[in-house]
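Narrative progress, year one. The postdoctoral researcher (J.K.) led the effort to move from monomer predictions toward full complexes, under supervision of the PI. The following entry was the first complex the group processed end to end, covering 463 residues in total.
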Amino acid sequence: MSKTLRIRTLALAILTILVTFLIAENLFVKVQSARLRKEPKFYAATIVFLKAGESVSKISSQGGWLLVKTASGIKGWLHSSAVQRKKVDLVTMDKSLKAKASADEVALASKGFNEQVEKEYKARNKDISFAWVDKMLAINVTPEQLRKFLQAGKLAEFGGGP
Amino acid sequence: MNTLKAVWILVMAGLIFFSVSCATLEKGLDAVSAVGSSDVEDAVKITQAVRKSFAEITEGEEYYIGRAVAALVLSRYPVYNNTSLTTYINKVGQAVAIHSDRPEIYAGYHFLVLDTDEVNALSAPGGFIFITKGLLKRCRNEEMLANILSHEVGHVAAKHGLQSIKKSRLVDAFKVMGETAARRYAPEEVAELTNLFEQALGDIVEKLIERGYDRKYEYEADKLGVKGAATTGYDPKGMAAFLQTMVDDSAGQEGKGWFKTHPSAKDRLGKVTKQISSIKPLPSEQKVRTGRFQQAMKSVK
């Protein structure tokens, strides 16, 4: 490889990294547990579950879906309604500030009307049972069950819908 | 060599721009921090202090409000404990929820059948959705059921429950939340927040069960429901068919459940029919869906 070519390759590599940094959109998960999916579909297989407050960076978008990369480098699809844009983007490149921003987000997620308030509410209202609320939350339609249901019913892309 | 120079200049210009941007942003953040102190807790304090309206209630807070509203609904109505029916209702519900404007919410959408002949459907913030056995019996097919569930998902997606909370309560609650940055509140703060929490629940339950949402919210939920059902592939005429049963029966059930808490079915039918006429192509009822609906309803007494 000639010297000129090496310099050009290096310059392009730096430029690519630079552009990636400038256009990278940093987001955080705002739902309790978000499925990072293999494809931009709700019934696609789950790669990993992301917790509220976890950071991801956007690579690209397709419809309402975002192709993202997690902090540990895993790529997958998240629906845009599961994430929120970070308030300060580029600053998160600095380690101390990154810690500050994510602690802020995690703290916000657990503040206000939270588990502690519910505990006090339950103590005051012993006649109000949350047992069925918890059972209701345990009802889970898996992505595979959802796909089969849509397909059998000729729904969404399996028939009548877009 | 000219190309190399151009690339090099571009890279250098980019690097300079990049460093300046970061420096400016960091200075900006430092300035914000300087208003209070430099730790995370004050950053939270600043963020909290600017919260003003229902739109700024976090997903987590919406979930905790919804849990308590759901518990209050379930203190008034018994659950129709039928696993296969509940599973089926949840599948229909998920199908329309993923085609709503807000498919991902804090803990997802969950659906439950209430054991009463009263004709009603209710949705608590955070995706806790209830449909009565009485309403289910009015449905002739999956299209009608899907449109009703899609209407309820619409209420959740548009945060109609949260909008029922009086603004003064939110202002007070945000004030308490803004006064501390600790993730655990002191006993007196918990007591004050719980007072406000109970009052907020009262505001929502009054609308949800006693008086009904404002008409504009019902019309909006109809619009979102029809759109969501049609996008899923359900015939939106299922909503019109359901409303027609309500028009036909309104004399007998007036003052109860859905009739008490929803605007005139006739007015809603007019608006929904107009909306449906603009949907092209219009999905149609499928035998396979009607068949599985009838199968799921077989055990309902």
